[in-house]
Amino acid sequence: MAQLLAEDPVSQITQTVVQNLEDQHDWTSVETHHGAGQRPLIKGLPPRRLYIHPDDQIAALDHEHSTGVRLHQEPEFEWVLPVHPAEKWTLSRIASVFDSVEHTGERAKRIVLGTVHNDSTVVYYLLHEGLVKPRQN
Amino acid sequence: MTTVTASPSRPLPRISKIAGRYLVFDHEDASILRREANTNGSLVGTLPQQPTQNMFLGLPIELRPEEAEALVHKNLARVVDDVAAHQAALRSSDRTAYIQSLRRDKATAHKVLAERAAQKAAVAADKAGRKKSKAKPAAAATPNAPAPSDGDALFASAPAVTASSPRVADSPMDNFGVTPTSSRDLISADVDREFEVSDAPEGPLARYLQDGGYHTTPGLRFGSKYSVYPGDPLRFHAHFMANQYEWDEEIPILDIIEGGRLATAVKKAFVIGGSDPSKGEAPENVTTYSIEWAGM
């Protein structure tokens, strides 16, 4: 703990988010990526699919209805950006984070914003690139 | 109602700039903007005696400055300094067009009144004739057992009636009796062109949303700048509440949390967007991000 306090705030909130993902949300293969000059990003595998686009969900439900086979169930690796509510970001910084996400083939469509509050509550928001219509929640 | 569409013969929809506000007075222009430029604006016209009854607002529609700019940028409308145009038109000695329009209105009114009088006379004559001819059969038929042929006759004759009677909307005086909302006959096209202005402030996000076919309404009720609809607001719920930022403007994370939380609670996504000045011109250089609660 003493070592943690000595560290800078960014690595502290990063560590808090990593622990929260592993212990509270049962994510696996959680690892921290340090880009050059970038904020650290956390890559991990959630136990269930975190996000399905509403159009894909409708298609999947139709498919399941007609064939009995469920689509889009396997979880995908997600990228988490730990932030603190007191921070201020800019569009250009968010854009550079999206540019820095490692990818093979398709570029990452979203990152997960892990906001660490002072009482160490972590709340997650999906940050999609572009206009992505909301889910029917 | 007849459908109005933008045609080569019709001038671009006219946006009047009055006291820094962008207003559309012509109902056909408002219809074209809504139908073809996915811009609905807000109805702001009211009765002087009931200014607080905002359930009954009518023309003109007011556009936000950046909305007007987006339309001008895409060459879908033009903005005219209305005060200057009116002063020029009223001071000029050549008012023949305006006088002609007044004469035309007068002739139309005469024609409509004559037509209505004729219609009334025809209906009265028809009634009188029917009474006489129906006097005998009506007395013979029993009220609780109508002849089965009655229904057939009704349906058989119905299309014939609608086909033969001229529809009021199709006649040239369809809008006679409606208080005119625009003074377009007063100002000639040349004078109008002279006072076109293009000083509306640019809004990259407004351009982007207009270009993408989205409708927008003021977003104040959801604490954002725009409510963004995937189609006409009368048909769809808003999908997004959107805010515009400069490319290097600081955005507090707390605002993103609040927006994301509120938007998710009302089944929307919170959108932040802005233009990257190093990547050319809006709307092509606009980047947007949609935020929603992750549900975990």
UniProtKB/TrEMBL annotation, chain A:
A Pfam cross-reference name: Sen15
Gene3D superfamilies assigned to the protein according to its UniProt record, in alphabetical order: 3.40.1350.10
SUPFAM superfamilies with a match to the protein in the record: tRNA-intron endonuclease catalytic domain-like (SSF53032)
Q: Which residues cross the membrane?
A: none
Leader sequence residues: none
Keywords on record: tRNA processing
tRNA processing: present as a keyword of the record? yes
- Highest taxon above the source species: Eukaryota
Domain spans labelled tRNA-splicing endonuclease subunit Sen15: 17-137
rRNA-binding listed as a keyword: no
Which family does the entry's similarity section mention? Belongs to the SEN15 family.
Per its record, how is this protein called by name?
tRNA-splicing endonuclease subunit Sen15 domain-containing protein
TrEMBL record, chain B:
Q: Record's Pfam families?
A: tRNA_int_endo (PF01974), TSEN34_N (PF26577)
The chain positions of domain tRNA intron endonuclease catalytic read 207-274
Low complexity bias spans: 136-148
EC number annotated for this UniProt entry? 4.6.1.16
Q: Which residues form the TSEN34 N-terminal domain?
A: 14-82
Which residue ranges does the record annotate as region Disordered? 123-153
Q: What does this protein do?
A: Constitutes one of the two catalytic subunit of the tRNA-splicing endonuclease complex, a complex responsible for identification and cleavage of the splice sites in pre-tRNA. It cleaves pre-tRNA at the 5'- and 3'-splice sites to release the intron. The products are an intron and two tRNA half-molecules bearing 2',3'-cyclic phosphate and 5'-OH termini. There are no conserved sequences at the splice sites, but the intron is invariably located at the same site in the gene, placing the splice sites an invariant distance from the constant structural features of the tRNA body.
**What protein am I looking at?**
tRNA-splicing endonuclease subunit Sen34
- Does the keyword Ribosomal protein feature in the UniProt annotation? no
Give the protein family: Belongs to the tRNA-intron endonuclease family.
Q: Which UniProt keywords apply?
A: Lyase, tRNA processing
